[in-house]
Design a protein that fits this description.
By secondary structure, this protein is of the alpha+beta class. The strands form nine sheets. Strands 15, 19, 20, 21, 22, 23, 24, 25 and 28 form a nine-stranded mixed beta sheet that branches. It has a five-stranded mixed beta sheet with strand order 2-1-5-3-4, with helices on one face. A four-stranded antiparallel beta sheet has the order 6-7-12-11, sandwiched between helices. α3 crosses α4 (118-134), α8 crosses α17 and α14 (398-416) packs across α15.
Amino acid sequence: MSDAITVTLPDGKQLELAAGATVLDVAAEIGPGLAKAALAGKIDGQIVDLRAPILADAAVAIVTTKDETGGGGIRHSAEHVMADAVKRLFPNAQVDAGRTDHSEKFQYDFLVDEPFTPEDLEKIEKEMNKILSEGADFTREVLSRAEARALFSSMGEELKLSRLGDIPEDAEITVFRHGEFADLCRGPHVQSTKQIGAVKLLESSGTYFRGDESGPKLQRIYGTAFESKKALKSHLARLEEAKKRDHRRVGADLGLFHLDPLAPGSPFYLPKGMTLYNELIRFVQDLYPKYGYNEVMTPQLFRSDLFKTSGHYDKFHDDMYWFEGSDEGEELGVKAMNCPGHCHLFTTGLRSYRDLPIRWAEFSRLHRNERSGTLNGITRVRTFAQDDAHIYCEPEQVPEEIDSFFQMTAEIYDKLDVDGVEMAVSTRPDQFLGDPADWDVAEKALIDAVERAGFHCHIKEKDAAFYAPKVEADFKDVLGRAWTLATIQIDMAMPGRFGLKYVGRDGGLHQPAMLHRAILGSLERFIGIYIEHTGGDFPFWLSPVQVVILPIADRHAPRAHELKAALGAKGVRAEVDDRSETLGFRIREGQTQKIPLTLVIGDEEVERGTVSPRLRKSKQANDAMSVEALVEALALANAERRKAPLD
């Protein structure tokens, strides 16, 4: 190791420091103000603790509250403060593990005699604030395995001793302390508890050690923290809005789907929900001719040989459903993904370069054995469908296919009013199939395609699936939450594993390039995200009920039903609400149900054959128009998939 290292800053400036200097040393070299504000650092793009030594030349950045990742260090540090508070109040409590994702909240699991009560959480939060006022520094220590074992044995932390065994023999063991509290941790942590501006405990729940129901039952506490009380207040307001938009609540209120413990992870779609579901499918299917896709349908059950060939049997076995077939020794798997079936289908005929690209799309049910603790409404389920497609093409056709993917994605997202999308490329994980050199070529091709499409390309290091690097389209919803929707992947493994070949232009056999692509992704997950993004206020063309017709009196009901039939004949989804409730009540009910257009039918409308449509977000009705004109206008709005009915 050299005695000196060169650190390159984000602006290109370089600093010379002694090898082993920390990220905090770099911040101090830049200036005292930055050193005081520093929360964490980045070495070659990887988030690290401020006290992490820099052992070789590297690109270094300092993370503050101005950086999106800065809050993660604050919450991670508050996590340790919470555990400290619990140990002070409940000395016999054992501390298990914290959380790896601190983008929004923190958590710790505890082995305690009794479940935590709301009053306990109040006491713990009060104790946390006391600890914050003490202003203790966070320190980082590297211990030998024996030293770590001795430390946690002396503390009576049996769960920690078990977790210590999870750390690989050749891995560095680090412990972070503040005051008298210590825990196994990789960091990063802020400099002192003074940098944690405000904390709030959110809830507690039961869980099991290592997720094993036969093991000890633990208590989990969730909380969040920010650099200031103002930032915390703003976040809590967003959480409250998120509760109002929760897709489980809105889905039930709008009559879209039903969730039942008899079918965990498997929603019941109600008629309105099926309308939404089918309209999304039809929307994507209507674009297939334009972008050259053909639909196929592959079986729900396959012999395990298929998944052994694809690699999913070894990599994905526990996430699939398996059972014995009727033949001796026959093992069948329920389809969890479409790609193996599509690859097998490719092998059933002789393919020529003249046939390529082959673009096969499939909407069919998929089933995955998601753990019960991970299920969440319809955003994390065991049965779902994808707007899934696989493209087989000549290698030189890959850039054009990726460009087409970006065009199709933009067209779909425009109609759905999903904007502000950012693109990222996920790179090779530690465990992967294929040749590293091929991965390098594929990753570069994806990065080039993202930039060619006019996007800045973010990199998600080691975040790809085991068989393919991928582009991910990420967007932030109205609550500022980030979601990954569209993906496209260059498969580095399956064409070879299935022995896929086509007759090339030279008459020889060649292996095709294979792309996986989805734009909405899982329909269930997309619908859940989209409900929360829109609050259930869907574009006109997608609304399960587009028009509600309100007869003022019983004598107006026949005319209302005639109007419903006329609209229905043109594909406009309308309902008649002729209940004996007041007109005002029924108008408000239509607004609550997020129905875009209301038509009130009284004597004048019956006599003149006109209607005065009222838009849901308008305080007054539009000018009167003929029924025929309205029907044609709404039919056209559907045909053109307009966001508003009467543009």
